Hints:
With 421 residues, the protein is an alpha/beta fold. The protein has 14 helices and 28 strands.
Amino acid sequence: MQYFEVTGGQRLKGKVTISGAKNSALPIMAACMLVDGETSLHNVPDLADVRLMIDLLARLGVKSHRDDDGVLHLEVRDEKNVHAEYGLVSKMRASVCVMGPLLAKRKRAQVSMPGGCAIGDRPIGLHIQGLTALGAEFELRNGDVCLQSKQLIGREIFLGGPFGASVTATANVIMAATLATGRTVIESAACEPEIVDLAEFLNASGARITGQGTPIVTIDGVDSLKGTTHHVTPDRIEAGTFIIAAAITNGDVELVNAKPEHLGAVIDRLQRIGVIIERCKAGMMVSSSRRLEPVDITTQPYPGFPTDLQAQAMALLSLADGNSTITEKIFPDRFMHVGELNRMGAKLRKEGPTVIIEGVKNLIGAPVMASDLRASAALVLAGLVATGTTQIRRTYHIDRGYERIEEKLTGLGANIRRLSE
């Protein structure tokens, strides 16, 4: 079992290149099943989740390889299999993104109920609601979601859920609708940059999608899609994590390829805390004042503050000069990192979907356990500034969403090592 050992106290300085977005790459890889011919994807990060998706697609007849330049090439060679089995799907929630492409292209989809991080209940009712609205027949059989349709028919679909729009449900319905007959209009669609990226890939392949990035997306079905080349958008969550890494260490870091236009709410909150963020030709420059101001944060669907940066922001606010609050409106149970940060000397108190943060002067290194992907990142950030050494178990969580994070942090001057027990 691997773990990270972080010795705090180093001020981060230098340049770091932001990788392609995991949450863009995975649905785009699944969308390749809609395409006739080869697809070439640039800027796909080398992550555990990406490798799991490659394995899943291989079982669904998609041949893939990375060339010497790191470009990922995918091409469907066999369309007989429509079953995304439990063994892989249970490890990664994004596997559910194969549902729409399988249904649209192969007329049937049998997908195991998805797994992923332990951050609370994430039902797939909106996926089923959207796909059955297009005319699919649905059955739950032996833990598998089974869908079939001889021909999907476009129509108006409302995809709003109790916690706002669903990104993966929006992606699934968009992918299925590209090959449906007629026009599909999605109301209360997710507006995330990853949805825009998916739509741009599909349009380059011959789809007719408009309105992406707004709550109303229109898809006019086409007969077929063709292979294309696409560059995956940079990862806004990785960029946000490194912004907070620079801030928590009072560092001075240039984020190459970061897109500030994807981080409006994050930049607003962090600037109020005292983080100095400037646009530059390569991306963004980040530094920090020595005194961190307290602030209140509420996670919301895009363009609001992302739930995927909630834990990292909590680590930063643990050192603010005063009391802050973070309210989780997307996944109300996503607070398993609270106890681990408290082990490091933070003063955090959970009150329903809100955590009250009493700022402390310093954090203290301790052995801690990561519970999910973003909690892992928060504990690494806390370790960067803590007095002494922090050992973070379950590094496999962080490897799902951050490409070589220890190498990138080491390149900025951090003292972090990946070790094996």
